[in-house]
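Good morning N.,

You mentioned wanting to compare the apo and holo forms, so I went ahead and generated the holo version with cytidine-5'-triphosphate. This is what I fed in:
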Amino acid sequence: MSSISGKKIILGVCGSIAAYKSAFLLRELQRKGADVRVVMTPSASNFIAPLTFSSLSHNQVYMDMFPDPNRPTSVGTWHIELGIWADAMLIAPVTATTIAKLVQGIADNFLTSIALALRAPLVIAPAMDTDMYVHPATTSNISKLKERGVIVIEPEEGELASGLSGPGRLAEVDRIVGRMEAFFEGHHRDLEGKKILITAGPTQEPIDAVRFISNRSSGRMGFAVAAAAANRGAEVRLITGPVSLETPRNVARENVRTADEMLSAVGKNIEWCDALVMTAAIADYKVANPPDRKIKKSEFADGSSKLELVENVDVLKSMASKKGKRVFVGFALETDDAIRNAREKLLSKSLDAIVVNNPREEGAGFGTETNRVTIILGKEDEKTELPLLPKYEVAGRILDQILKLL
Ligand code: CTP
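and this is what came out, ligand included:
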């Protein structure tokens, strides 16, 4: 039986020439046993009639934000009700305009309103002309949605309606359905009722009022874990150092700056959580007594150009007394002798698992959208080497392990 069987899916259709393919997509999702409700943008109706979808789905098609008040089915809060009803929303095709509206939270039609009210995961399959697809506005919007945990089914390359050739053609129906199946297989709401505390990003340790010591952590890995955990139904609190990333949906975020602030934020939340995932790259040292004014160059002119450093508290180690049955997962970035060093950290920090990666490997480490990691488990002393994967998928594998440990 397909994992799609019995699932409640909202199929969103936007104004693209590929909109006719949504009819085939609808049929295929239904054939696999899904209960599908179709939502269209008004411009989609220029490409395909709502009647096609209502006939195929045997259900009302939702399009008008302010439907005819004389019709008995015209209830004004359908977008909220559908948003609660669905197990997932799939927008295929999604246009550049709707992608931009999703980023900004603009709810100016029925489809975008549902997307904003949606509690379930959102999957989008873009379709547009190549020049629109590769435009920095679109690529940056798609990246932002990915950061929030939206699953993007990339378009295919080929001949487009304009006669041009390149990426932008809606993914084939089979591929979209395959991704939805994989999604439902791997993403049951299997973390429902679990409370996960995640730290992310670098810390900044002030030198004076304007300067600081920090590191190159982008926070992406921790944000991916937060997004994936929330998509699987966990209650997620994310404590992050300074990063320029969007907060994933259904994630409660607290911003901190220094290692000391990170320590106190983790300390406040530790008793609440069932699992602690420490992806944060916490600075090992801070500057002793940084003045709250800018230090002048001349102050170092006498040759005393030295900063006095003091060691920061190890957040993980200091939580050991509160561990109890909680699952603790650490991260280790190692350039040399990675596995041995990571195993040592696992033992010294009372961890159940440690995720190790090497920033010198292609596609791994700072600022990338992918990562190649090895997960080392404490108990069995067992290790799983993962291939190069998008950080969201790496996050999924880490959560699979956490679920087993919980
Ligand atoms: N960590 C922590 N508190 C610190 C430093 C690190 O809780 N002050 C956590 C990190 O969030 C990570 C794990 O410990 O999950 C390992 O971090 P890492 O910087 O690799 O370890 P260190 O003990 O600092 O070792 P080193 O820098 O010497 O490799």
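Residues 391-405 form the longest helix (15 residues).

Happy to go through it together on a call whenever suits you.

Best,
F.
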